[in-house]
Amino acid sequence: MLGAIALGAPVFAADETLKGELVCAKCYLKKADAKECQDVLLVTNAKGETVEYYVARNAVSQESGEACTDKVPATVIGSVLEKDGRKWVTASKITKTK
């Protein structure tokens, strides 16, 4: 019985800390599919490659405000998932270090 309960329980990922620069997919990156402002955190990985993390809209991201045409150094703490070929972070905390 306990095995069935354990298998049905949701799995929660631990929050990750990502450091990089917040930019806008539409205004800064000029993404063709961006119809409105959308924050993206650009993070340089260990190989020196830039990885894009789209910031999901929630109360934390709204309170932080949009980067739009600026490039804002920031640390984002949150859960990361991949959806539709993009990495998304749902922030529990955003700290901008301007």
Can you walk through the features of this model?
By secondary structure, this protein is mainly β. The protein has one domain: Nucleic acid-binding proteins (OB fold (Dihydrolipoamide Acetyltransferase, E2P)). It has two helices and five strands, in the order αβββαββ. Strands 1-2-3-5-4 form a five-stranded mixed beta barrel. The N and C termini lie far apart (54 Å). Residues 1-9 have low confidence and may be disordered.
**Mind telling me the C-alpha Rg?**
16 Å
Report the sheet with the most strands, covering strand number, pairing sense and barrel closure: 5 strands, mixed, barrel
Structural classification = mainly beta
CATH architecture: Beta Barrel
Q: Could you tell me the CATH topology label.
A: OB fold (Dihydrolipoamide Acetyltransferase, E2P)
Mean pLDDT across every amino acid position: 89
Note the beta-strand portion. Answer: 35-45%
Q: Could you give the order of strands across the largest sheet?
A: 1-2-3-5-4
Total count of helical runs of at least 4 residues: 2
Tell me the helix content.
10-25%
Features:
5-stranded mixed beta barrel, single chain, OB fold (Dihydrolipoamide Acetyltransferase, E2P), mainly beta
Q: Can you give me a brief rundown of this structure?
A:
With 98 residues, this protein is mainly beta. It has two helices and five strands; from the N terminus they run αβββαββ. The chain has one domain: OB fold (Dihydrolipoamide Acetyltransferase, E2P), CATH 2.40.50.140.
Secondary-structure blueprint:
Elements: H1 2-8, E1 16-24, E2 39-44, E3 50-55, H2 59-64, E4 72-83, E5 86-96
Parallel strand pairs: 3-5
Antiparallel strand pairs: 1-2, 1-4, 2-3, 4-5
